[in-house]
Write a structure and sequence with these properties.
Chain lengths: 385, 90
């Protein structure tokens, strides 16, 4: 049963599986499939969450998976309008687009402004890092075209954040990585590790040797951010700093958006949906999939009552309990991301993953140790007045 | 000739941190919190002060560590931490 007061935070809509590039670490299946979401599907998706009483004072609509801008502007705007028309005016709706920026034009910028769309750009740092993995189907690098899109956003003063995938190669170049991002007006930089999930079965960050390397990379990056007075906001550091700031105070344990049902609903271009980790949509679950309904046919409360959902929720809850029982980071993690447990360990009812080691444990360790060290060993510098 | 001296806190150049932290996480976070309070006391707003601020010449310029960034203001809510646990792909 959906607990009273449960509100959806992210309605993730996959407008098309198609992507105009072919990154070698991508976890998404069917990236050559050019199917597009129909506005009726987008409208039905919004209607389902409203009907289920999941929409509170605000909701974020995330257009993600495939490259959303390949929809074409007119088709994409029709989807946005269909969603907006189905959500009560009393709810604040914010649309987000995650894009490789290659197709951004003046017309797209007009649209972003007109609809107050929040933009996230996927860019992995300098060209030699970015182009190693983010290539076209014919093998060409995409850095130049991504930068052209970024330049257009900057010229139009459209705010954007950036997400960079960190691979094994990135770890050797923290300074080049920082020097690329620090002059850009990104309001936040998110570091995504190269994950093992979906169709991507191996990561360059796998293995015991990678954890100390990742730690060295993050420590150096933190030092560079600190030396510049925290002008570049890094999502991971900001979050860990908040944990430091509140340490010693009584706070409720964190909860992961991905392991609480119905805080995220993900809908593919045909209208099939699931909850928990968005990446589950499209993955196999034995002979089955993680689809628990169709927005045209299945009310969310019916999906919630289904045996399939109950089994999924039960296995994920077992994994959270196991993390709580055995991990000192649980207070700050909330039990981890189900898709990473499933993809790395083969079971939701499992605990540690490479993903949680690198994105939670190492980050907290680095920030705590860097701050503690700074307080222990201040250097007094004598300067002229 | 007048001579003035001011002190500026900067992070030391230092050897690499140990790979396996010995202390429990809660203890390390508490030490980091204590350090944060020394570097930028929460009640002084010093983290946002510029070294050029004449009102504070001759005092310890703790704010150098954070530049013009005030950790107590910018990280002053627990939900900031929860951002860590938001879906990370957008």
């Amino acid at each position: 049963m959906i607990p009273p007061g449960t509100h959806i935070e992210l309605l993730i809509l996959q407008p098309t599986p198609f992507c105009n590039i072919d990154c070698d670490y991508c976890y998404l299946p069917n990236r050559a499939d050019t199917t597009k979401m129909h506005p009726d599907v987008a409208r039905a998706a919004a209607e389902r969450v409203v009907e289920a009483g999941l929409v509170g004072p605000r909701v974020s609509i995330v257009w993600h998976a495939g490259e959303p801008l390949t929809m074409g502007l007119a088709s994409f705007e029709a989807l946005v309008d269909a969603v907006n028309g189905a959500i009560p005016a009393s709810t604040e709706v914010t649309h987000h687009v995650q894009t490789n920026a290659m197709l951004i034009s003046s017309d797209w910028c007009d649209f972003f402004e007109r609809k107050s769309i929040r933009i996230g750009v996927s860019v992995d740092g300098p060209a030699f890092l970015h182009d190693s993995h983010r290539r076209t189907r014919s093998g060409k690098g995409t850095h130049e075209r991504t930068l052209a899109g970024i330049r257009l956003l900057i010229e139009r003063r459209i705010a954007f954040h950036a997400i960079a995938v960190v691979t094994g190669e990135t770890l050797d170049h923290p300074d080049e990585f920082y020097d690329f991002f620090s002059p850009l007006p990104v309001h936040l930089l998110g570091l995504n590790v190269e994950e093992i999930e979906g169709t991507h079965h191996r990561s360059s960050l796998q293995g015991l040797a990678m954890k100390p390397r990742y730690r060295r990379f993050m420590a150096r990056l933190f030092q560079r951010v600190q030396e510049d007075g925290f002008k570049l906001g890094v999502r991971e550091f900001n979050s860990a700093m908040a944990a430091v700031r509140f340490s010693g105070e009584t706070m409720p344990p964190a909860s992961d958006q991905q392991n609480v049902p119905w805080r995220i609903v993900t809908v593919d271009c045909g209208g099939q949906y699931t909850t928990f980790s968005p990446e589950l949509l499209g993955l196999a679950w034995g002979e089955d999939t993680f689809v628990i309904g169709s927005v045209q046919e299945t009310p969310i409360r019916a999906a919630d009552a289904s045996a399939k959902f109950q089994r999924l929720e039960g296995e994920i809850a077992a994994g959270i309990r196991a993390c709580e029982a055995g991990c000192e980071y649980f207070q700050y993690c909330g039990g981890g991301a189900p898709v990473n447990k499933y993809s790395e360990n083969g079971s939701f009812a499992s605990t540690e993953t490479m993903f949680c080691q690198l994105t939670r444990k190492v980050v907290l360790d680095v920030v705590a140790d860097e701050l503690a060290q700074a307080g222990r060993s201040p250097r007094v510098r004598v300067t002229a007045p | 000739m007048a001579v003035g001296v001011c002190f500026t806190l900067t992070a030391d150049a230092r050897p690499e941190a140990p790979q396996a932290p010995a202390a429990p996480l809660a203890e390390r976070l508490r030490e980091a919190n204590d350090s944060l309070r020394r570097i930028a006391p929460p009640d002084s707003d010093s983290a946002a002060r510029s070294d050029a601020d004449p009102a504070h010449q001759g005092s310890v310029r703790w704010g150098n560590y954070f530049g013009n960034f005030n950790p107590w203001r910018n990280w002053n809510n627990w939900p900031n931490w929860q951002n860590f646990n938001q879906w990370h792909n957008f």
